[in-house]
Write a structure and sequence with these properties.
2 copies of one chain form a homodimer. Chain A is built from 7 helices and 3 strands; from the N terminus they run H-H-H-E-H-H-E-E-H-H. Chain A is mainly alpha-helical and 173 residues long. At the A-B interface, helix 2, helix 3, strand 1, helix 4 and helix 6 of A face helix 2, helix 3, strand 1, helix 4 and helix 6 of B. Chain B binds a DNA duplex (30 and 30 nucleotides) through helix 2 and helix 5.
Chain lengths: 173, 173
Amino acid sequence: MATIEKSTGEGPAAAGKAGREHGVSYRDLWSRPGYLVRRLHQIHVGLFAEECADKDLTPVQFAMLSVLYGVQGLDQFSLSTSVGVDRTSGADVIKRLVRRGLLARERSETDRRANIVRITPAGRTFVDQMRPAMERAQNRLIEPLSEGERDLFLEMIRKMVEANNSASRAPMG
Amino acid sequence: MATIEKSTGEGPAAAGKAGREHGVSYRDLWSRPGYLVRRLHQIHVGLFAEECADKDLTPVQFAMLSVLYGVQGLDQFSLSTSVGVDRTSGADVIKRLVRRGLLARERSETDRRANIVRITPAGRTFVDQMRPAMERAQNRLIEPLSEGERDLFLEMIRKMVEANNSASRAPMG
DNA sequence: CAAAAAAAGGACGCATACTCCCTAAAACAA
DNA sequence: TTGTTTTAGGGAGTATGCGTCCTTTTTTTG
């Protein structure tokens, strides 16, 4: 694999549960919460892609469709905010979904700055068909946890998201 | 904000803790583990950027420097694997760090396919200076949790990452 | 009412994180 | 040794997720 051997415990094998030697020092990657969260996010994207293989839709795209499913229409900013992405990122996602015919976009009559986005009948059908695959991906992510741990995990992660909401570039609510 | 009102509970306000009406149905975004993980990852990137404002380094870049800090040298693939990113993503990150003089790269003598990557003295200094900021970002992420919850959270997230490791495009170990 | 502030969106650029396809080099097998 | 397969890396293309600068439109304020 490598021509030169690894000498430290930064790898997963050497890391394990007891990575912090002195207090809270985050010496190796597996003791850094942010690192683990990034890895878990990667994994969820992977699981989602696996379950939705033929559909070719991403988690964020599905989240947008989910929000619009139960709404008459939303401007791009509100839509982006409610799925928790940046305004400019959201605009890109919307553009692709419009191109695929899953969303429709029109200039607002009452506020000519705003684009009103709606889900199309095709988009609605798509959501109906994809929901089981999405749920399988969600379940596989937390499957390694016990029943009790799953609720606990959701509680804790919600607490962190709510408390640090303003730190994100796409604060919600 | 919007010209048309939101009618459903997909938003954060209506969501809360009791989002699942029938069994495990993930009806609203705040009940979807994958969604919450994506948000938490966003937040960590935001916190990291905030703490390291003047340094202009990302979490993945710092992870790479961290790994190379304790190692003689690594080929690009091994380096990417040990920080948990895809081979091609890793190559891009390395390219930027080389451009900034924090890493050095040379063709291996023993295997002329491989690029051996090393941290430069400047990179080493950089890591030393940045570590406190990185640790502040890590601490702020889990600060909303109680002392006991923090260890529990790390346990659980490690369990999920290890069990689903192969689902990611950048499996480790 | 006119000037200023705010808000929505577009356009461009950067960084992560993949895909697929390609070349070159090494390892392995017949 | 001669093929075949594996491995390392590069290049092109796509998607998220941000920043910044800019225009247009609306709202607010003096």
